[in-house]
């Protein structure tokens, strides 16, 4: 029984953010994640002193060992470890821990360490407690409702880019940098999204005319996805917001329970609220 | 009678996407269309091995022959072939089949093969069955309702570009790359749409000041079409969505029938639902 | 009396677009305006044959003489010529006619001929009859209602650009192309509006960090004017649309009268509807 | 008592914009602020005559002395000087006055003079009286309500940029200009925000494919913050607008009082309206 209590306490600290200890754990974890990303980024920068690289290497190992302990703790503190291991965060956590071990055997694999950036998404766990949950729930809903339409729209944009790209390839030819149809399609995407690098740009008058038409078109087109999200989001404003906390069920790992819930709404297991 | 049944079955497979066979046909067709576009694109890329070009050439012919058979099958399986041949998709289908035959006689015409990209729009046929139809109907309606206003708006933008372009031509002159008024107008469109290639950029202080004003203006202007589509789309949200399937009438080729319809709502011909 | 009828008929043809003759006049005028703009643009292009420039010069004179006749006709067919001469279109019409005459005395003044582009705005006169009037009225209203807010917003953007530009000047210095504060402010406007020419770009790590912050900020900021117009436009959708035609009062030159109006709503003068 | 009246009058002129004298003072101050910014900017421009720099230096001193007097007047005319000195504008006013004095001792500190641009925000003080107050109140409210959501959104964008940037670093490598992960992340921000300088651009086919995906994604993503502000702003349209004037309490420095208020709504001190 004492062992169970110990496991529950660990579970509460690691998986939940409602208790002071749980909150502290999450904040420390976030700082370590940010530090580790900064270290990986700095490592890729050339021209620092040799000593700095050595320090970065050691710091990297310290953080990796901490992450390893955390990963093991997460597995042992949960009733059904599979629910964690094969969850989105479970895979991210594994991927953000192993690259350094791999780098002992495979050269260059330490660059994969920036997968750790994905762990930053955990920040929403802490924010969950505050009013952000309602916000991001509504935002998520608006994006989800718009997804199908935006997909249809982006698909149409890609079709337009393939056709315009081919036309530009025929009009401009290789001399202007439109070396092949894929390159021309790439140029068309760069133009239609108004990024406009300028590494490839039309030179002939007809090419510039077509480019101008594509741009004006893109200017009108950009209105469409924005309009969709706007309308969906406005529509979602009337929907009620349910207050949810970050309690995690020890049995099924479900982590969205309403305030005051005593049993998991997925598997019926008792929730430990103390 | 047996012949008629055979024709109906073929019609159902080719034109409709409600039966498993019809769905399979459409999916296979889409994959072939995508493959053929990828092949045409790859053919334009320089620096591949000679053998690859030979393979691509053969693959191109295989797909073209399949498209030819499909085109003939579409014509014979319909009661009034003219309705198909002169429809939007009929013309696209013909245009996407003949370039390779033409390339036997005319050099370079195979580049026209990317017209096939337009065939990708068929994807909406398959999606039609799902909830996408409601979405794209509403989206289409919002775009259609906004068209007049966006046209008025884009027309005003073009007038602004002609005037600003001429001013820049007078201010900057040929040294800065503003070689002629059309080029300056082209630059102005590139700037106002926030594409900004950088192949032409103002150099004189007055030119840069005018450019800055154009940009700030463009920043405020971009809000207008977005606002229009947003509002139209929001307004369309209250309109009811009618559920439509992809049944095609064998008589008049009309393909928008409500679920459960037994007769074509355009010509009164019986719909074969089996 | 016969003279008065003649004047009225001319007035109806030139100023109004409700009769077939008036419509035809406006369409011919628009085509001439577009042609004259195309000619002015072509004249600025280098590398055409000497004969082409001669033809363009003659064509320019033909159009200018037509515009001169039109300008005189407009003055004599109206009761109070001052109302026309000092109106927006009156000044535009004068400015688009005299540059060629001036070019006989002053070299280079023919470039001012593109002021004619502003005459293109007359197109809305023809469109007025159709449903476009409602559209552009509502659009104009939404823009007018948003103007104050967008001005406040753009002003804040300029303040941000001045401060960020100065910071970049201090950080990057002259080596990276940030030669002076005005140039840095220009760069900041180019960046914040997402145009991004690339003629000036930060080189130092701190400069790139600040640039990244400016961009992310600009990404969030661009939402503001769009949101304003969207909301205003949606709000204006509930307002009723009054049907207006292009009847022009011969007395006071007011040109917005409701369908079926018999007297001018500004001065009480009788409207000639025949 | 006479001294108190004198202080009140000064207070009314300097801090408030409801009387003609107060309005005039604010307009003169704004013109001086704009002039001083123009002078600082011009000073950074190279290639002007030596005499111009001398004039600019003198003008700078004249304005600084005026600002110094204004700063002292602000302190002595208020009952509790601390409320002003440590307020936002108090700090800005100090920062915009001292750099020139500092420049006598420290070389280069005069560049800090553009902090004066922040003083331009005072313009809203004058505009306050007009209908702008309602507008900017609503705008401010919409932005404030959207802040949390836009922050969540921008945070997600940064995470996406870190991951995509690292991928591009691995794919493109140093040859294409992707020298380190921070540089690649910088490139990714430049691309996703559609700025697109073109100083760094992908060269390999896989890099260009990933870049195209990032752009299309960015195109869809830009819709989100716009949608949020639109919806919030539209929602705020129903809220009532309270008319507020720029009366400042001599006791607690609170400056938002409703029209006709006789006592400060923060400390209960009498407001001098004469």
Give the spatial strand order of the biggest sheet of chain A: 1-2
The CATH architecture category of the largest domain in chain A equals: Up-down Bundle
- Biggest beta sheet attributes of chain A: 2 strands, antiparallel
Share of helix of chain A, binned = 55-70%
Low-confidence stretches of chain A: 128-133, 239-244
Q: What's the Cα radius of gyration of chain A? A: 25 Å
In total, the number of strands of chain A is 2
Of all protein chain pairs, which has the greatest interface, and how many residues does each chain bring to it? A-B, 44 and 56 residues
Silhouette of chain A:
flat
| Tally of individual domains of chain A | 2
State the order of secondary-structure elements of chain A, H for helix, E for strand: HHHHHHHHHHHHEE
Class computed from helices, strands and strand pairing of chain A? mainly alpha
Mean pLDDT of chain A: 75
CATH class of the largest domain in chain A: Mainly Alpha
Q: Give the DSSP E fraction of chain A (strand runs of 2 or more residues).
A: under 5%
* Helix count from the secondary structure assignment of chain A: 12
How would you describe the overall organization of this protein?
The structure is a homotetramer of 274-residue chains. The first copy, chain A, is mostly helical and 274 residues long. The first copy, chain A, folds into 2 domains: 127 residues, Four Helix Bundle (Hemerythrin (Met), subunit A); 95 residues, Helix Hairpins (Orthogonal Bundle), CATH 1.10.287.70. The radius of gyration of chain A is 25 Å and the shape is flat. Chains in contact: A-B, A-C, A-D, B-C, B-D, C-D. The interface between A and B is large, with 44 and 56 residues. Chains A, B, C, D: It comes from Aquimarina addita.
